[in-house]
Design a protein that fits this description.
elongated; 10 strands; Arc Repressor Mutant, subunit A; 18% strand; three-stranded antiparallel β-sheet; Beta-Lactamase; Enolase-like, domain 1; five-stranded antiparallel β-sheet; alpha+beta; 13 helices
Length: 338
């Protein structure tokens, strides 16, 4: 592109991001001081349309940017985008503030991202293959129910009620708790699950009652679905951001299903810094009219999860990107400091 084409495309992008409306040559001639006529602007817009940067929804309407235009716009942004002081303070307060568990902290962060961007905030918890056991405990509720609390090294807390076929005493459950903590402390949850499944395949006669129950209870305790590890806030912004009701409904169903979002966030964890997926780059048909801005967080060199926002492709990228970047870096620092 030459300078005029870049200026016109950028003006169309920024005007459409601001208003959501198609942009015409007359509007641009008022916004830009290029010293050229509306006819010249129309010709340049026609060229940009042929090149795939613009689309014309209706014959008489103005142009709207395509995914290719947004990709051009995002790639052309400077590496260091400014972050508002108020945003910085609110991020630090949410990330560094007291929290009973990492899960509560991540939930607070997803809510804050929604408030700051007016988009839908998503935060994935550490994945099972990245998470190590800190403590597991079993508490008897009644004859056939046991309450399980599982705490990871990253201070994620999982709790569930499991069904048992025998009436197990609390003293016996304490023995199971001690055994599992001694055997598997600091093991990855996925490793524990694999080892327990291997032991289940062995002859039951090899175990006494304690070991047999420990294996069975451990298996049930570790049946944790990855789709539970996603914190979502601001679904109402999906409805506000898309005029097309059908599109909004599809997006809400994807957010409800959760696992697809977890998988997409997992993909972004391999990218250093902030990742911006636009439209079909997200490889999920129901997300083709959205953009996801995300970044990984971790405990130094190891990514544990990711956080970000989902919204229309016409989101305010210069404001959103530094918010995601700073939040991820603050959360990483907080986890590293313990």
């Amino acid at each position: 592109m030459d300078d005029r084409e870049r200026a016109i495309l950028t003006a169309i992008l920024e005007h459409h991001i601001s208003t959501g409306e198609p942009v015409g040559s007359r509007t641009l001639s008022k916004v830009l001081d290029l010293g050229v006529s509306s006819a010249t602007i129309r010709n340049i817009m026609a060229d940009l349309t042929e090149e795939g940067y613009l689309d014309q929804p209706y014959t008489s309407a103005g142009r709207v940017p395509t995914d290719l235009a947004y990709r051009y716009y995002v790639d052309a942004l400077p590496d260091a985008l400014p972050l508002l002081d108020d945003d910085r303070e609110r991020i630090e307060e949410a990330v560094r503030g007291p929290a009973a568990s990492l899960a509560i902290r991540l939930s607070n962060i997803s809510r804050l991202l929604t408030e700051l961007t007016r988009l839908t905030g998503v935060v994935s918890a550490p994945r099972l293959n990245k998470t190590r056991l800190k403590l597991i405990e079993f508490v008897k509720l009644d004859t056939h129910q046991v309450y399980v609390v599982l705490i990871t090294q990253s201070n994620m807390i999982y709790h569930k009620i499991i069904e048992v076929s025998e009436d197990l005493s609390q003293e016996f459950l304490h023995s199971v708790t001690r055994y599992l903590n001694e055997q598997f402390a600091d093991y990855r949850l996925l490793e524990i699950r694999e080892q327990i499944l291997e032991r289940l395949l062995q002859e039951k006669e090899q175990y006494d009652q304690l070991l047999a129950q420990a294996v069975r209870l451990g298996k049930k305790a570790l049946e944790i679905s990855e789709d539970r590890n996603l914190f979502v806030e601001g679904q109402h912004n999906i409805v506000l951001g898309f005029l097309d009701t059908e599109t909004a409904q599809r997006l809400l169903l994807v957010l409800e299903e959760r696992l697809s979002i977890v998988e997409i966030l997992c993909e972004t964890m391999t990218t250093p810094g902030v990742s911006v997926g636009i439209g079909k780059e997200l490889h999920h048909e129901d997300l083709w009219e959205t953009a996801l801005v995300s970044a990984a967080y971790g405990n130094g060199t190891t990514p544990l999860g990711a956080l970000g926002v989902i919204g229309p492709t016409r989101m305010d990228y210069p404001r959103v990107i530094p918010i995601i970047d700073y939040t991820a870096r603050m959360l990483t620092n907080t986890i590293m400091q313990g």
